[in-house]
Amino acid sequence: MAEVEVKMEVGSDGVAIITFSNPPVNAFAISIITSLKEKLEEAMSRDDVKAVVLTGKHGKFSGGFDIKVFQNVQETGKLSLLSNFSIDFVTNRIEDAKKPIVAAIEGLALGAGLEVAMGCHARIATPNAQLGLPELSLGVIPGAGGTQRLPRLLGLPKALEMILTSKPILSEEGNMLGLIDAIVPPEELLKVSREWALDIATECKPWVRSLDNADKIGSLSESKEIIKFARLQAKRIAPNMTHPQACLDVIEEGIVQGGNPGILKEGEVFSELVVSDTSKGLVHVFFAQRATSKVPNVTDIGLKPRVVKKVAIVGGGLMGSGIATSLIVSNINVVLKEVNSEYLQKGIKTIEENVRGLVAKKKLSQSRAEKALSMIKGVSDYSEFNDVDMVIETIIEDLQLKQEIFGEIEKACPPHCILATNTSAIDLNLIGEKLTCQDRVVGAHFFSPAHVMSLLEIVRTEKTSPQVIVDLMTVAKTIKKVPVVVGNCTGFAVNRAFFPYKQSAHILLLLGVDLFKIDRLIRNFGFPMGPFQLEDLSGYDVAVAVGKEYKAAFPDRAFYSPVTELLIESGRNGKRNGKGYYVYEKGSKSKPDPLVQPIIEESIKIANLMPEGKPISITDQEIVEMVLFPMVNEACRVLEEGIVTRVVDLDIASVLGMSFPPQRGGIIFWADLVGSKHIYTSLKNWFEKYGNNLYKPSRFLEERAMNGVPLSAPVSATPKTTSFDSQS
Ligand SMILES: C[C@H](O)CC(=O)SCCNC(=O)CCNC(=O)[C@H](O)C(C)(C)COP(=O)(O)OP(=O)(O)OC[C@H]1O[C@@H](n2cnc3c(N)ncnc32)[C@H](O)[C@@H]1OP(=O)(O)O
Fold first, then answer.
1. Using a 6 Å cutoff on CB, does residue 115 contact ligand 1?
2. Is 27 near ligand 1, meaning CB less than 6 Å away?
3. Where does the 3-hydroxyacyl-CoA dehydrogenase C-terminal domain lie (predicted)?
């Protein structure tokens, strides 16, 4: 069968098997939908066809509507591209067809994939097929009848859970709950499906129209209560998003008015949401995340990843034990080295606690947890390093010590072994300076807690070999991390672009803006917490140590705030000792601590930033912009210096490493929506007003703003020109 094609074969039993193919996931592209309509029309009109089986090629039913079409609609505004898929195709051509249609589901049926299957008159699936409606994760709602048919097939509570969490269920659960009619092995899928279809045609099995099925919907008052509860939950999980509430409105409409009015409302709401900024951001993140795994001159030069079966970790602290946890739960053997048995026991204990935590959260079964723990071996010397495929060093940020350790591991490990460091700041060229095998040195920058956070920043030097990068990217995927490949500098891409976030928040504080207001506004923007809450969480000692690194690396613009050291002097260390900008007490929510006010007043005096000694007057929007625009400015430098060569890498690094709200599409995507000219002029204005270099626009930003070139255009896209100043 050709790559993108719909084929129909009519058997001697009178069943037409319609197979669609659009690798890799059989997405419903416009051409596939058009061909499917034609084949269905033919099947309905042919006298030798009694029933139809609809199935996908390549071991999958369908990954849903083609999301590239969403991008096209978002760019052109042409809603007609969505071609009334729901009513014209799923309802009229499938559900209302005059001959029975059975969906034969292998592998997965997601989004429109499941919606098409629910329009069919029965569903037969292979074991472990994934069934889900993940549309909310793209900023839209199920738009091909899913909001109406799933509650009618599964009952409201389970349907709401699936839609609101975007999480799929497996066909076994679907079978138990009534979504799937039978589970059969892959080799019997077509045989059973065609028999089922014939049985419906001969009335031996029921001809079920899902939209008419009211059995699983309870009383109106009961349903309304369930939806009310779901609204509260959705608000708690996604406080800044409106589309989950819009989805619940649509589901409620269907319950109150009936399935057909529900489908009409679904269509209206879908059309509004697909062109919203939220959907634009989330669709961008979907494709950007996949693009990060295609690295020019690395993944496109025919290299095959080598197998990494055993990894040694040097250092069993918080990072080392988190990384070890990620590896062992993904079936990679780990040798954990510590300097003495006390530290070793501590490290192993943390790993055991991490694994128990994953079991408690139902992310790991008990048997897999036991297997994982059997894959770790604690050691206090290098004798076990002779057959490891990779070493990850996770000790404290001390260059001399790191150089010594790298000298030792180079001798102890086999010649193919990858030598990785988890440093978050130190120049990799210095760490590997004394080695003979500098092509094997690479940064594996995990984020804390390493067994939970999904980003792996892979830092390459000019000498790191592409093979080593390919290998580490493969390990990242094995342990379910998203790898982003970046260049070498202080802070690499994530911490480098993120440092102005905290510093600008401190400048605002010292200019007299209420810190709790800053936190609240940043949360409203979509970050999970504000800059001061984040500082409380990481601990002030970390903030002071990291602040020194940036001061040394970027003395022209790194800002020193006296607040953190004064907080430490007064016995505060954030969440760790329960006392920070907020008070943390066991069993209750953190609360702003009024007792920090005198410390802030003292800091304001020391810093003396307020113009004429008075707090500045500033709008809420400007507060948010003053925290975020300096990050955009630094991100521009990261791009200009080639630390990151593609904008998608920075967008994904910001979403997964800085918790930049995914619905904003990542830092550069958002900056382009705001407009580089506005960012440039705002920064310039603050630079002139407050005299702080943190706000001085970078050359890259200035050139892009001046030439009207989006920040996301390739680095080579900016013509070199004179500045705004000299132009005006
Ligand atoms: C009207 C309807 O209600 C609206 C919809 O149906 S919206 C779509 C709903 N469906 C989804 O959200 C599913 C999105 N896809 C996924 O979650 C995952 O791709 C998957 C679980 C299907 C497969 O995962 P995995 O095997 O890891 O492969 P993954 O790398 O993600 O995808 C493989 C390729 O298929 C593409 N792809 C996956 N689903 C796609 C889709 N629905 N449309 C277009 N392209 C898609 C990916 O972009 C990727 O392309 P690339 O190779 O060029 O980078």
1. yes
2. yes
3. 491-584, 623-706
DSSP per-residue string spanning 51-86: EEEEEESTT-SB--B-HHHHHHHHHH--GGGGTTII
What would the DSSP string read from start to end of 207-236? ---GGG--TT---HHHHHHHHHHHHHHHHH
Q: Rounded to the nearest whole angstrom, what is the distance from the C-alpha of residue 25 to the centroid of ligand 1?
A: 7
Of 106, 115, 625, 703, catalytic: 115
Indicate whether residue 63 lines ligand 1 (CB < 6 A): yes
Task: Provide the pairing of β-strand 122-125 with 101-105.
Answer: parallel
Choose the catalytic residue: 106, 135, 457, 703. 135
Catalytic-residue membership of 115: yes
**Phi and psi, residue 10, nearest 5°:** -105, 125
pLDDT value for 588: 84
CA pair distance 87, 267, nearest whole angstrom: 9
Question: Residue 275's CB: how many other CB atoms inside 10 A?
Answer: 18
Mean per-residue pLDDT pooled into runs of 10, the chain (728 residues):
89 98 97 96 98 97 97 92 88 97 98 98 98 98 98 96 97 97 98 98 96 90 96 91 97 96 96 96 97 94 97 96 97 97 96 96 94 96 96 92 96 97 88 94 94 95 96 97 93 92 96 97 96 92 82 90 94 92 91 96 96 94 98 96 93 96 98 97 96 95 96 70 37
Do 500 and 631 touch, CB atoms closer than 8 A?
yes
- Assign 443 to helix, strand or coil: strand
Asked if residues 352 and 273 have their Cβ atoms less than 8 Å apart, the reply is no
Atom of ligand 1 minimally distant from the CA of 291: 54
Ligand 1 pocket test, candidate residues 67, 72, 81, 84, most atoms within 8 A of CB: 67
Query: With a 6 A CB cut-off, is 69 part of the ligand 1 pocket?
Result: no
Q: Are 458 and 328 in contact (CB under 8 A)?
A: no
What lies within 8 Å, CB to CB, of 467 at 6+ separation is 303, 306
This complex has an ipTM of 0.99
pTM recorded for the entire structure: 0.93
Q: Which amino acid is at 648?
A: V
- pLDDT for the residue numbered 551: 87
Give the residue whose CA is nearest to atom 29 of ligand 1: 290
Determine if ligand 1 sits within 6 Å of the CB of residue 656.
no
Integer CA distances (angstroms), 347 to 164, 351, 452, 537, 650, in order: 37, 6, 17, 21, 33
User: Could you tell me the distance, in angstroms and rounded to a whole number, from the CA of residue 136 to the centre of ligand 1?
Assistant: 14
Calculate the average pLDDT of the chain. 94
SS (H, E, C) 492-549: CCHHHHHHHHHHHHHHHHHCCCCHHHHHHHHHHHCCCCCHHHHHHHHCHHHHHHHHHH
Query: What is the token pair recorded at 441?
Result: 């040195």
Token pair 């996949």 is at which residue?
290
What is the distance in A from the centroid of ligand 1 to the CA of 22? 11
Q: How do residues 26-80 score in pLDDT, each as one tens digit?
A: 999 999 999 999 999 999 999 999 999 999 999 999 999 999 999 999 999 898 8
Pairing of strands 441-446, 455-459: antiparallel
Structure tokens at 48: 């030798």
Q: What percent of the chain has a predicted confidence (pLDDT) above 70?
A: 98
Instruction: Say what the pLDDT of residue 727 is.
Output: 35
Q: What's phi and psi for 492, nearest 5 deg?
A: 50, -145
Task: Report how far apart, in Å, the C-alpha atoms of 613 and of each of 426, 492, 559, 597, 608 are.
Answer: 39, 37, 19, 17, 7
pLDDT digits (tens, 9 = 90+) for 288-309: 999 999 999 999 999 999 999 9
Residue 139 in contact with ligand 1 by CB distance below 6 A? no
Is the Cβ atom of 111 under 6 angstroms away from ligand 1? Answer: yes
pLDDT (0 to 100) of residue 716:
67
Helix, strand and coil in the chain, % to nearest 5: 55, 10, 35
Cα(480) to centroid(ligand 1), Å: 17
Which run of H or of E encompasses 8?
strand 5-10
